[in-house]
Amino acid sequence: MKINKIIFNIKRLYKGYVKKYLKNILIALFLSFLVAGTTSAIAWLLDPAVKKIFLENDKTYALVIPILIVLAFSTKGISLYLARSITVVLGNRVKQQLQNELAGSILLSDTEALESKHTGKYISHLTYDVGLVNALSSTALLNLMKDSLTLISLLFVMFYQNWKLAIFSLIMMPLSAFVARSLGKRIGKATTKGGESSGKLAAFLSEIFKGSRMIRIYQKEEAEQNKATTVIDDLVEKNIKIGSVMIRATPIMETLTGIMIAALIFYSGKLIVSNELDINNFFSFLAAMMLAYQPVRSLATLNMGIHQGISAAKRILPIIDSKIVDKNEGKDLKLSNGDIEFKNVNFKYSSRENSILDNINLKIKSGEMTALVGHSGAGKSTIMNLIPKFYETSKGEIMIDNQSINNFSIRSLRKNISMVSQDVILFDDTVRKNIGYAKENASRNNIEGVQFYAADVGKFLVEHPEYAGKIRTIILDPARAGVAPKTMKKIINLGAERMVYVSCNPATQARDTELLSEAGYSIKKFSLVDQFPHTSHIETVVLFEK
């Protein structure tokens, strides 16, 4: 990733998501100062500890210094706890905002653009990529502040004890930075590929759930299992590669640390022999350098986390920016008759070279039934999808009551349109929630005298006694097991004049027919519908009347 792109994405994340929590960041920064100060104090206290306690046998210092060390460690621990608590909340708030904006952008994005990308990839963005940005804005941010300040404070201690030895120790740091940068680039690339594989798995699972019946009908379980194995194996390989790149830093950093300590001991020995370094200064310096090991290692590997987070942001932010801004917001469509007219309409999917619709002229009058007939792929569904502006025309205009739909807000346009799609969607929510869509649709279309209820069939008349003796028609569409006998008795007790029974299992329907016959219902009409060609399954529709 180019440096200017990295800077751009960082600025974007900060201004859009992190800046509002600046107060929290400043508090975490102050706590990081405390962590850094107490850490350096621990190292510095070894100087008087060795000199006064071990060399001069001062009993006062033997009591005071251990107390000070305990206080330093306690302050460090409490400060670190509070700082982490703040950044954890900050990271999750950023995650929350990103997920909300992603969900909103998906709902408001261009339909064609939405359909060009598989559902699984969006799921991967909402979970995997947002998680990486969360880590960037919490763990990475805290470590950057805490470890940078700690390293600087420890360097002050090291220079205070012996400037020659401090300069000598600093020679190894550029090498650590170079290794970290190299590993960071590799982890960024590996993470991008890992995110793609995660999206493929999510997409595959989505297809499995959606097409489970078709898979079973055509006995493709084994083929899909093999596909699942391939997708999962690919994801595992990508995750292994990510992990291997990340843990590769461990032996490298351990080796560099060993070389640093060995060189330090060698050079310190020379300074002690030449009386340029006292033993108490050496121990304090050594403690400072050993305590600096963790922040140096953390900062060296921090580059990886930053690359991961920035790579994820690079994938997320364009989706957030892709939502449609309705330029005609507030301009409402006023209907008089509801006549629809296509004038020289052209349309082409961006993924195809050839046009689907070419110079289409069409008039649909209000109050009439119009059928569009043609072979698969002729553009029938496309014409229907152009009216509510799911897609934008390439050329021409669509008119409603001699008004171009391009002159009105999308919300206003769709408020005046009802569609019955060939794809039936049942939301993964309560029955009441799904019925709510029907309520809203009826209200938008000024349909009065219609009520929607989500209730237990056995308790309906108890909860709504005003409907006793007024229920005329009941439509039954049970599962293959049919209607449970107890439930069927409750349905019969509603006293409907007629029942329409739709069943995918004639055997259970025949069983329930006996109960209905005993209750005074007789068969008036019977129809068979072959909804599952090339299979033994058939749909039966029976009209019962009293």
Question: What features would you describe in this structure?
Answer:
- This protein is of the alpha+beta class.
- The protein contains 17 helices and eight strands.
- The protein has helices at 3-18, 22-55, 59-108, 111-115, 119-161, 163-170, 173-210, 212-217, 221-247, 249-273, 279-321, 380-386, 410-415, 431-444, 460-463, 485-493, 506-518; strands at residues 340-347, 357-364, 395-400, 403-404, 473-476, 498-503, 522-529, 539-545.
- A four-stranded antiparallel sheet has the order 2-1-3-4, covered by helices on one side. Strands 5-6-8-7 form a four-stranded mixed sheet, with helices on one face.
- The chain starts with a helix and ends with a strand.
Please describe the structure with a list of short key phrases separated by commas or semicolons.
17 helices, 4-stranded mixed β-sheet, 4-stranded antiparallel β-sheet, Rossmann fold, ABC transporter transmembrane region fold, 3 domains, 8 strands, alpha+beta, 546 residues, 64% helix
Give the % helix.
55-70%
Q: What is the tally of helical segments? A: 17
CATH fold-level assignment of the largest domain: ABC transporter transmembrane region fold
**Per the principal axes of the C-alpha atoms, what is the gross shape?**
elongated
Topology overview:
Blueprint: H1 3-18, H2 22-55, H3 59-108, H4 111-115, H5 119-161, H6 163-170, H7 173-210, H8 212-217, H9 221-247, H10 249-273, H11 279-321, E1 340-347, E2 357-364, H12 380-386, E3 395-400, E4 403-404, H13 410-415, H14 431-444, H15 460-463, E5 473-476, H16 485-493, E6 498-503, H17 506-518, E7 522-529, E8 539-545
Parallel strand pairs: 5-6
Antiparallel strand pairs: 1-2, 1-3, 3-4, 6-8, 7-8
